[in-house]
Structure formats: C-alpha cells, structure tokens
C-alpha cells in the first residue's frame, strides 16, 4: 500500500511538473485563440465568400474571387500606394528627427525632464483632437494656419485637402507630430544604455562629438532603430484615424473625392460599412496581413544580418 | 430624422445634436434634480406593464428635451413605459441595428431609420419588419406621396411610417443678391428661376457671377446642386422594377452636365458641404445660395451667427426635390408588436409631427400632410431667415416632390456621384472624364 501511494504521489508529481506550466499559461493562449487567432482565421474564411454586412450569416462561396477582383480595383491600388507614400513621408523624417532630438536630450540639459515630458504630449493626445487641430491648420482658404504661414513667404493659398500630394503631406504631418516624441524617448533610453567607456575611449582617441555620435551611438542603436522602423511600418499599415478625421464628416470615409489620401485600413472600413461588402473588406484586411508578414520577414532578415555583423 | 446619406457622409445634424445633448448633459450635471425629467415621482409614475424601447439617432424631438411626446404618450397609456435608445452617430447605430436584425434578437421595439437606409429595409431586410399598412389610424392619404412610397416594399407592405421630410427650397443671401443687382424679395427671387434648374444655373447663376462681389460664388457646392437636380427626377438611380439605371438615366446625366456647367462658369468654390470651410462660408458671406432642405435652416442659423440675422431668406426652388428625412419601423422580433405599432402610428400622426416641428427648432418638417393644415406649421416663420413663411414654403414643396423609386445602393451611388462632382470642382476634370471615372467607381462599389 505504501508503495502504491508513493507511486501515485510520484505520478501526481510528474503530472504536476509536466502539465501545470501549461495549465498556468493556458489562459493567455485560450484568450489569444478566442480573440486573436479565431478572428484572424475567420476573416480569412469570410474573404473567400460573397457576404453582405447586412446579412453576415448568409455567405456564398467565391474562392479567391475577392482577391482577383482587387486587380481591377482602382481605389485599392490607390490606397496601397498612398499607404506606402504616407508611411515613407511620415516615418523617415520622424525617425531622423527623433534621433536628433534624442541626441540633444541625451546631453545634460536644463529642465531635461520638462522636455522629455513635453515630447510625450503629442503621443498622449487622442488622434481625434490632433486631427481636428490639423483640419484647421490645413484649411484651404487663407484662414488656415499653414496657408497663413506660407503667405508670409509670399506663397498663395494651397488647397491642402483636394490636392494629390498636399493632402498626403498633411496626413503624414499629423502622424509625424504624434509619433516623433514617442520614438525620441525610445532612442533616448537606448542611448543611455550605451556604456560610457566607449565614449571615454573615443574621446581619448580624439573623436569629435559628431564622430562619436556616428561611430559609437548610431551603431549601438541599430537594433532600436530597426525596432522603431518596424513599429512605424506596422503603424502605417494600420493608418486609419488620421486620414478619416482629416477628411471630416464629408470626405473622411473616402479619403478624398479622388481617394487621394485613402489608406488600406480606411478602404477596409469603406468596403465593410459603406458599400457593405464584408467579403471584399476581409480580402483587403488579409492583404494588409500579408504585407505585415512580409515586413516582419524582411526585418527578421535584417536583424539576423545585424547580429552577424556586430 | 436627419437626412444623411450613407456613411455619415454628412452627419451634420446628428453631430450638432450630439453636441447639444452633451451640453445638456453637462448642464444636467450641475442641476441633477432638475434634469431627472419631471421632478419627484417621474420614475415611479412610469410603472407600466409593457416597456417599449425606441431606437433612434440625432434629434427626433420625442423626449423631454424636445416635444416631450414620450411623456405625453405614457400619460395617455399608463400601462406603457417608453425607453429611448438614442444614438448620436447614425452610422454606428445602423451598424449595430443590422447586427441585431441579422441575429434575430437585440433590436428595439421601434427602430428609426434614415431614408437612405430604407432602400435596404424594404428589400434585403424586408422580412425582418412588420407590415404597418393595417395598423388603425394609418392611411396612405395622410402622407406626402414620396414619403409613403419610399417606406413600402415593391409588393406593397408598409414597413416604415414617415417622420420628417426634407423638402427643398433655395436659401439665399440677400446682401450678396443686392450687391449683384438681383432682386431680394422671395417672390421675385422665386420667379427668377421658376420651373427650371437650367434657368437657375445658366440664367440666374451666370447673372450673379457676372456682378458678384469679389471672392463670392453663386452656389455653396456643386454636389448640393447635383443632388437636388437628380432629386427632381421621377426616376433617379433605380427604376420601378428595382434595377439600377444610374448610368443610363438621361435625367441623371443632364443633372451631371448642369453641375459641370455651374462649375465651368465659376458658380461654385470647390467647397465640400458640411466641412469646416463650408460652415464658415455662412459667417463670411462667401456664397449667395444653398439649396436648402427644411433641416438645413438649423445649420444656417448656427453657422451664420447672430450678426447675420436677417441676411438670409428663402425662396421656392426651381423644381421640387427632397433630401433626407426618416421613418419609424417595427421589427418582427419584438415581443410587443401591436403596442409598438400603435406608438409608431401615434408618433407620426399629424398633431404629433406638428408638435415636433414647432417645439424642436431643428427643422424636422412633417411628412404627414395633414399636419400642414395645423397652424403650428402653417403659420410658422423663421425669424433668423428674414421672417420667411417657412411653413407655407416647405408645405407647398413637400406635396410636389416626385415619387422616385429607391434601391439598395442609393446611398453608395449618391456618395460616389458626389465625389465625381468634386472631381470636376476640385480636380478640374471635364464632365466627361469625371463621369467615366464615376461610372467605373460605382460599378466597383455596388458589385458584391
């Protein structure tokens, strides 16, 4: 009897050791499966059907028809192009400026904490508030702030919202304004983790501050820069609130009458809730997912090369 | 209530209404007792046996902030309790309601819909709603023909009872008219363009533009003009059999070309309706006319500001047309269908519609024509708009609105057409070029 109790106990012990960890982490995976994986897969399933938003339970099989129809969908291509253009227009200056700001903040500044907090203020602002303000900044007539500023240089009023490039620039500006501070703080944190010995050694070798920045700081920051670039890329793929609110009640949903600042995420919304084609909306959502996977793949490759080169 | 095409493309009224509600809520926070709705006993008096939920959006004017009709009904029917499910955003409301209808549960006992949704309600969703044709008190003769028709399925079931209507007139800026040497008296102004949108654009518009004060335009928007001209047609985007004819209907193409002529003649400023710039245009007197459904008056009053009181006036539109308005429907899934139908009938009966129009100053013009004989409508004047006899102007327009069939994608087509007009106005495309782009866009958008 004593033996069998011991055997049972050891079996229970083994079960405890092998199963308990799984049981403990199960809640996350269950929640992920219910709220992450299932919607993702279900969206994929929906994208293979003709479905109306009005009657989502009634699906007709369409195969890859929703995807092939995108070939001739003018707004889709426009939105895809815009997503990349606005992404570049906002991310590149954003990361460069953030790097420079972080460099300045990394020095001992008077009121350093104040500047750091101030940088986060745009990030903490809701996109709705930001977009509203920028709607006024980029008003078409001379009442808008941007046009007033241009007029000081003798440049006539610009029709921001109707323009092909000016509207993209305006939307990118909102993104730039909101996210630069956030990236600055990430860079700043990474800079402060760079060992001071490296700078001391560089100083002894006679490197100037600028040389130190280029040869010591930036290389040490490479993984962080990659991280912020990925975050910006994914952010661009999800870009919705800024163009939607910039267009206002009239044109937000379309991204302008000529879709000149429509993005992929905005087009998903337009398909799903304006023309009520849930299947087509799901197909575009999956295209966004494919692009995100591709971006992740490329960045993984770059990360691997970075690791090898270090 | 508020006229909104699909997608909150123009949420003008509800968003304002939402602001007003928010302001009211704030005011209430300070005066808790005064806002609970009628002082002590208000809650307990409503100890009815049947509770009816009424889902609506924006300002229907039924609650205590408006005409207090729910309270009156509950007093008349002590066994009924009414709970309003008011939504500030019509698009979100429509999305949620669709889900409830599809799921077969969760819908309110009465659901209000904007007219642009009725193309869906009376076709794809028709089997979800109760036929109200035989509810006591409901009679076809009571409603403006267009209102009755657009609430019906093709087989004749009456799924929606009309609340407000958006008959159109032309609101014009008397200061700018005088400056351009045009008459300013409503009767004389109406005579200038009587009978034809073409005269409106190609005679009056050009005449205004020739002597226009610097930087002003005859029209607030080409899209507004286009929609009104299409709205004057007996057939618009769908024919009587429910087939889309937007591409082949000659009256749509004629409206398009007319909008193109207005743009080419410089009669529009390329401004999107309901944008901030459009709103500020009223305060700055930057356009001479806006084609004006009854509810638009509230926007003019708000946007033009007190300094422009008496500057605007209203004249009869060249041809009758409608923009906006809403319906009450009764979903079949409700537990108290008979009571809900009776309430819907009562809310849309002439005395109640007249009461809403008189009590709620946002221009919910009755669609029940018997209300037009009610002095609260018949004698109504708008003091801000030069004391214009708005009751008479809009009543006369309402009964003459053509009864055009609507279809499932009316909202989408209208949205794309509006974009197309903006392609002419803002991107300076030729009418042909813009038309071609718009036709292919509509085809993409209405293909499932």
Q: For this entry, what is the oligomeric state of its chains?
A: heterodimer
Please report which band the strand proportion of chain B falls in: under 5%, 5-15%, 15-25%, 25-35%, 35-45% or over 45%.
5-15%
Arithmetic mean of pLDDT of chain A: 89
For the largest beta sheet of chain A, what order do the strands appear in spatially? 1-2
The helix count of chain A comes to: 13
Number of spatially distinct domains of chain B: 2
Structure, explained:
Chain B: Keywords: Signal. Chain B: Residues 1-33 form the signal peptide. The complex is a heterodimer of chains A (310) and B (448). In chain A, 75% of the residues lie in helices and 2% in strands. The longest helix of chain A has 45 residues, at 2-46. Chain A has a two-stranded antiparallel sheet. With 310 residues, chain A is an all-alpha fold. Chain A has helices spanning 2-46, 65-68, 74-106, 112-124, 127-137, 145-152, 164-192, 196-204, 209-237, 241-246, 248-251, 264-274, 278-309; strands at 49-51, 59-61. The mean pLDDT of chain A is 89. Chain A is flat. Chain A has two domains: 2-37; 70-309, MetI-like (MetI-like fold). Chain B is of the alpha/beta class. Chain B has two domains: 6-38 and 45-165 and 325-370, 3-Layer(aba) Sandwich (D-Maltodextrin-Binding Protein, domain 2), CATH 3.40.190; 167-322 and 403-446, D-Maltodextrin-Binding Protein, domain 2. Chain B is 44% helix and 13% strand. Chain B has helices at 12-30, 32-35, 42-45, 69-76, 90-103, 115-121, 145-150, 174-179, 186-193, 197-210, 222-231, 250-264, 276-283, 296-304, 337-347, 350-359, 375-378, 390-398, 410-425, 431-446; strands at 50-57, 80-87, 110-114, 161-173, 217-219, 287-293, 312-316, 322-329, 365-366. In chain B, strands 1, 2, 3, 4, 5, 6, 7, 8 and 9 form a nine-stranded mixed β-sheet that branches. In chain B, strand 1, helix 4 and strand 2 form a beta-alpha-beta unit. Residues 1-47 of chain B have low confidence and may be disordered. The chains are: A mainly alpha (310), B alpha/beta (448). Chain A binds chain B through residues 50, 52-57, 69, 72-75, 135-136, 139-141, 143, 159, 161-162, 248-251, 253-254, 257-258, 270, 273-275, 277, 279-280, and chain B through 6-12, 15, 91, 95, 98-99, 102, 120, 124-125, 270-277, 280, 409, 411-412, 415, 418-420, 422-423, 426-427, 440-441, 444-448.
């Amino acid at each position: 009897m004593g033996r069998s109790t011991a055997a049972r106990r050891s079996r229970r012990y083994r079960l405890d050791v092998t199963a308990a960890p799984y049981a403990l982490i199960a809640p996350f995976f269950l929640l992920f499966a219910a709220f992450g994986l299932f919607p993702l897969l279900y969206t994929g399933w929906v994208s293979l059907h003709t479905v109306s938003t009005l009657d989502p339970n009634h699906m007709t099989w369409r195969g890859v028809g929703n995807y092939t129809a995108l070939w001739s969908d003018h707004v889709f291509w426009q939105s895809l192009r815009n997503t990349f253009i606005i992404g570049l227009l906002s991310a590149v200056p954003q990361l460069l400026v953030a790097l420079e700001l972080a460099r300045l903040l990394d020095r001992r500044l008077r009121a350093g904490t104040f500047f750091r907090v101030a940088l986060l203020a745009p990030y903490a602002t809701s996109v709705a508030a930001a977009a509203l303000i920028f709607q006024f900044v980029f008003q078409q007539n001379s009442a808008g702030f941007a046009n007033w500023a241009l007029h000081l240089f003798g440049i006539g009023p610009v029709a921001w919202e109707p323009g092909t490039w000016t509207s993209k620039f305006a939307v990118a500006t909102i993104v730039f304004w909101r996210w630069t501070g956030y990236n600055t703080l990430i860079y700043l944190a990474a800079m402060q983790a760079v060992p001071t010995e490296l700078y001391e050694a560089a100083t002894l070798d006679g490197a100037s501050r600028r040389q130190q920045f280029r040869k010591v700081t930036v290389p040490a920051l490479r993984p962080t820069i990659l991280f912020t670039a990925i975050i910006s890329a994914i952010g661009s793929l999800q870009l919705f609130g800024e163009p939607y609110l910039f267009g206002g009640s009239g044109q937000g949903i379309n991204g302008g009458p000529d879709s000149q600042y429509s993005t992929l995420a905005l087009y998903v919304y337009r398909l799903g809730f304006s023309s009520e084609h849930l299947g087509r909306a799901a197909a575009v959502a999956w295209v966004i997912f494919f692009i995100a996977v591709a971006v992740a793949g490329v960045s993984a490759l770059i990360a691997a090369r970075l690791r090898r080169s270090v | 209530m508020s006229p909104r095409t699909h997608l909150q493309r123009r949420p003008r009224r509800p968003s304002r209404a939402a602001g007003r509600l928010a302001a009211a809520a704030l005011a209430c926070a300070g005066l808790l007792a005064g806002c609970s709705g009628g002082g002590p006993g208000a809650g307990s008096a409503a100890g009815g046996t049947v509770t009816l939920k009424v889902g609506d959006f924006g300002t229907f004017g039924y609650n205590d902030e408006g005409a207090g009709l729910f309270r009156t009904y509950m007093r008349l029917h002590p066994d009924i309790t009414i709970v309003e499910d008011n939504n500030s955003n019509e698009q979100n409301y429509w999305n949620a309601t669709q889900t409830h209808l599809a799921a077969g549960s969760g819908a309110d006992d009465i659901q209000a819909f904007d007219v642009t949704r009725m193309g869906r309600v009376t076709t794809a969703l028709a089997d979800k709603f109760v036929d109200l044709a035989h509810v006591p008190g409901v009679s076809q003769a009571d409603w403006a023909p267009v209102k009755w028709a657009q609430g019906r399925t093709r087989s004749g079931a009456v799924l929606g009872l009309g609340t407000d209507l958006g008959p159109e007139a032309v609101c014009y800026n008397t200061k700018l008219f005088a400056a351009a040497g045009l008459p300013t008296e409503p009767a004389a102004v109406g005579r200038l363009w009587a009978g034809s949108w073409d005269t409106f654009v190609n005679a009056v518009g050009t005449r205004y533009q020739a002597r226009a004060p610097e930087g002003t335009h005859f029209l607030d928007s080409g899209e507004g003009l286009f929609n009104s001209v299409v709205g004057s047609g007996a057939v618009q985007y769908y024919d009587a059999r429910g087939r889309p004819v937007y591409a082949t209907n000659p009256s749509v193409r004629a409206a398009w070309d007319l909008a193109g002529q207005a743009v080419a003649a410089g009669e529009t400023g390329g401004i999107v309706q309901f944008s901030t710039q459009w709103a500020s245009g009223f305060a700055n007197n930057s356009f001479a006319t806006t084609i004006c459904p009854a509810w638009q008056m509230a926007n003019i009053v708000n946007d033009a500001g007190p300094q422009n009181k008496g500057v605007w006036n209203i004249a009869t539109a060249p041809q009758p047309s409608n923009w906006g308005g809403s319906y009450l429907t009764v979903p079949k899934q409700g537990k108290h269908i008979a009571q809900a139908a009776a309430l819907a009938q009562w809310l849309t009966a002439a005395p109640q519609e007249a009461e809403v129009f008189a009590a709620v100053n946002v221009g919910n013009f009755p669609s029940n024509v018997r209300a037009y004989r009610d002095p609260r409508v018949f004698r109504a004047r708008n003091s801000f708009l030069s004391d214009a006899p708005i009751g008479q102007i809009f009543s006369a327009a309402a009964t003459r609105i053509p009864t055009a069939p609507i279809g499932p994608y009316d909202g989408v087509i209208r949205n794309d057409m509006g974009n197309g007009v903006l392609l002419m106005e803002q991107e300076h495309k030729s009418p042909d070029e813009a038309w071609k782009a718009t036709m292919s866009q509509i085809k993409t958008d209405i293909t499932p």
